[in-house]
Structure formats: structure tokens, C-alpha cells
Amino acid sequence: MDVYLPIANLAVNGLVIVALGALTGILSGMFGVGGGFLTTPLMIFYGIPPTVAAASAASQVTGASVSGVFAHARRGGVDYHMGGVMVAGGVIGTGIGAMLFRILQQWGQIDIVINLLYVGLLGTIGTLMARESWQAVKAQRTGVPLPARKRRHHPMVANLPLRWRFYRSGLYISPLAPLLLGVFTGILTMLMGIGGGFVLVPAMLYILGMSANVVVGTSLFQILFVTMITTMMHALTTKAVDIVLAVLLLIGSVSGAQIGSQLAQKLPAERLRFVLAAVVLLVALRMLIGLAWQPDEIYTDSPL
User: Fold this and answer.
1) What's the mean per-residue pLDDT of the chain?
2) Could you give the residue ranges of the DSSP H alpha helices within 143-175?
3) What residue ranges are annotated as transmembrane (predicted)?
4) Which one, 3, 5, 35, 203, has least CB within 10 Å?
5) What is the DSSP track for 12-55?
């Protein structure tokens, strides 16, 4: 079933795009992370221009985050005070990211920068996840439990000026820390089309020291608004959002997330994290090979 993508200016198999969305939805449901960090690389592998892939993936993440936010909000798992500060930082970050995107686009370097960012970020995150999950599996086999981590914010956060009380997160810290974290994820969302959950969640736990029962819901709250703003920013500045592509991805991801959540209940969490780390590292390796491999046609026409 061929479908024409007006912004990408090419025809694709609609079922393949839905399948890509379903795959990332399954991963999202299984591992509790947004699938945006895999959606963009998979679309690039399929032949979608990186600029269109990144912009359209952000709109897909917006739709996929709505149900998650409502689910966590119903059980009181969202710190709106903390989330509001991070959303404010995300708005600033998307503005900075939009300027960087346009500058890199004018220089003709945006595609390679997107690929390099994915190689670096996925390689780092995948390595850390693999090490942590391997330690958990090893501890399970030997019967020696890992030492419990104390919930405490990073010393750098403690040294920042001003302090606010974030009651639901159980914190008394400077709002500058979540604001800067929001700025960073906003830039990444604009450049890479990711939700940022796989960066936000560890940072909220180990840097801000937030309570674990509000981390995922607050992360989704921030992702929802920042990806919404990112989509609008792309539509107004880069003109790279392909609504047909985004709808096909959303259809697949919504159904895939239901399948993934059922699989997650049947498989051990430690092994699931190890599998996710392996998938992330394989994607990073494939993108690295793509950067080094010389194409058959060096000069091609691609839409801006």
C-alpha cells in the first residue's frame, strides 16, 4: 500500500510505516520509555530524510504521551509544580533548538548532525543501561542483592541559588536545576525529534533526586507539552512536519503500546532492560556505519 508523503516528497509503503510505529510502541509499552528515540533512526534507515523524520517523530510522541499523562494523573503520579518548571525550560530549549536547526540547515549540515547526535546519545545511554542491567542479572544469579541507592539530589544541585519546595517530589531545591534540564531536553527534542524520556527519567532520579512514584508521570507531562511546542515550531520555521507520516506512526504506536504493556507483565524486568540496551546499541552501531559508508550516489536531491 503505497502512500505519498507530501513534505518528504516520496512514496512509501504505508504498512511499513505503521509497523515501525508499532515496533516503537511495543518497546515503549515494554520498557516504560517513549519510543521517539528509536522512531527517527528507523525512519532514516527506511529512507525518510532526517529533517522530516525528526520533525514528524516529535508530533507522533505528542499523541502517544497523552494517554500516559492521564493515566499517571489519575493516581497522583504527576508533580505539576516540577513539570511546569521543566516545561518552561523546554520552551526556551525549543527556541534555541529551532535557531540551531535553521543555522545547520542553511549550512547543509543538519542531516549529519542529527546522525552524530543519535550515535553519541544512543551509544552512551545504551552502554549505561547494559552495564546496569547486567549487574542486576548477575546479582539475581548469585543471590547477592545490589546495595540500595539513596534518593538524594546531586551536590551540584545543592549549590545552586534559590530554593523552592516541590511537595509531591519531596524536594527542597533550586528551580534552576529542573529549568536547565528542561532546556537541555527541549534542544534535543527540536534537533532529534525525541521525547527525551530516556534522558529525563534517569536525570530526575539521580540528579534531581525526585521520588520514584512521580518521575514517569512528570516526565510524560513535560514531554507532552514540549513535543507539542516543538511540532508547532517545526511547522512554522523548518516546514518539515509531514502530517501523513505522523498519523501513520501514531496508528502503529498506539496499538503497539498495548501489546508491549502485556508483554512486560510476562517477562522479567532485568532481562527486558538488557534487551532494550542491546537494541539501542545496535541502532547506534547501524547509524555509525551509515555515517562512514560511502553511498552509491554521492550527490542526490533532497527536500529542505
Assistant:
1) 76
2) 155-158
3) 12-38, 44-71, 83-104, 110-130, 171-199, 205-228, 240-260, 272-293
4) 3
5) EEHHHHHHHHHHHHHHHHHHSS-THHHHHHHHHHHT--HHHHHH
Is pLDDT of 34 > 70? Answer: no
Average of pLDDT values for 204-215?
79
Cα separation, 38 vs 88, in Å, equals: 26
Helix (H, G, I), strand (E, B) or coil at 161: coil
Q: Taking the mean position of all CA atoms in its chain, how far away is CA 35?
A: 6
Q: Helix (H, G, I), strand (E, B), or coil: what is residue 76?
A: coil
Q: Could you tell me the residue ranges of all domains in the chain?
A: 2-292
Res 265: pLDDT = 63
Whether 4 and 245 have beta carbons less than 8 Å apart is answered as no
What stretches of 32-173 show up as alpha helix (H) in DSSP?
36-46, 50-74, 80-107, 110-142, 155-158
Count other C-beta atoms under 10 Å from residue 62's C-beta.
23
Mean pLDDT, rounded, for 268-283:
72
Closest CA to 14 of 245, 253, 254: 245
Question: N- to C-terminal Cα distance for the chain?
Answer: 26
The CB density around residue 190, as the number of other CB atoms within 10 Å, is 30
Per-residue confidence band for 271, with pLDDT thresholds at 50, 70 and 90: low
Contact 176, 162 (CB under 8 A): yes
Cα radius of gyration (the chain): 19
What gap in Å lies between CA 153 and CA 165, rounded to an integer?
A: 14
103-141 pLDDT per residue, tens: 887 887 777 887 788 788 778 877 877 777 777 767 767
218 Cβ neighbours under 8 A, 6+ residues apart: 77, 78, 79, 82, 83, 86, 169, 204, 210
Query: In terms of residues, how long is the chain?
Result: 304
Under the phi-then-psi rule, with left for phi > 0, alpha for psi from -120 to 50, and beta for the rest, what region is 295?
beta
Helix (H) or strand (E) segment spanning residue 172? strand 171-173
